[in-house]
Specification:
The chain is α/β, with parallel strands linked by helices. It has one domain: Rossmann fold (3-Layer(aba) Sandwich). A 6-stranded mixed beta sheet has the order 6-7-8-3-9-10, with helices on both faces. Helix 3 packs parallel to helix 6. The longest helix has 16 residues. The chain binds adenosine-5'-triphosphate. Adenosine-5'-triphosphate (ATP) binds next to strand 2 and helix 1.
Length: about 260
Amino acid sequence: MLLRVESVSVAYGAVEALKSVSLSVEGAEIVAVLGANGAGKTTLLKAISGLVPVKSGAIVHDGKKLHGLPPHVIARLGVVHIPEGRRVFATLTVEENLNLGGYGCPKEEVARAKERVFALFPVLKERRRQLAGTLSGGEQQMLAIGRGLMRSPKLMLLDEPSLGLAPLLVDQVFSTIVQINKEGVPILIVEQNARKALSIADQAHILEVGRLVLSGPARELAADERVRQAYLGGATYERRRRIRESRAAGEAPDPRG
Ligand code: ATP
């Protein structure tokens, strides 16, 4: 087992953001955690990468205890966290952003990793000298993922890569996630876009107000009536999704809703 999260609880003062959450990533698979705003998805990834302290429970990666270790040590162990919101250095070029991702690694390794990123995202190669702040939202997401790949991750944690992207770009970003996984990188992804995440994941979990309420093979969850109602099929859900997507694409929402 590659990653084991065992009965993990996290609190921000009186707010219990995670309540005894257990899940695992078994090998080179994609595991998705789905949930609405505020369910605790970001907190889960932050707990794994050491950005928030674990109140109780255990997190073990590759046989090593992660809970209690500082974030830079966890990153050095190959656990790469791509945060929500495509955080790139806007005033640096694409290539400078990638170089920073490989900071401290031997030169030849950085060059090799960069070629790999450019092969995966040809648009980043074309724009290697362009300032990151001038890239489109989708390209910035690709750069954020590319920067994470500069360290040959043993596990990639992805926080809502679809956030604020138009549907076509969401498709592009998700197909690269599949590609990265095919190249052998295990992925734990947290998403509000349940449809998309379930379409690429092997295993999936539903997180509601800090608790896992349903877990299983992604295909089974996609067919589960409760999941379809709450996250995939319900009319309110569909309407909200269409409004979100048209906003992301910069269009006026469809008046039919
Ligand atoms: P979103 O999709 O909006 O990012 P999320 O599922 O990632 O939501 P979290 O950001 O993990 O959810 O938040 C879980 C809960 O913890 C929420 O109730 C949130 O308000 C609370 N929370 C998150 N960060 C803090 C913080 N730094 N201090 C206090 N409460 C916090």
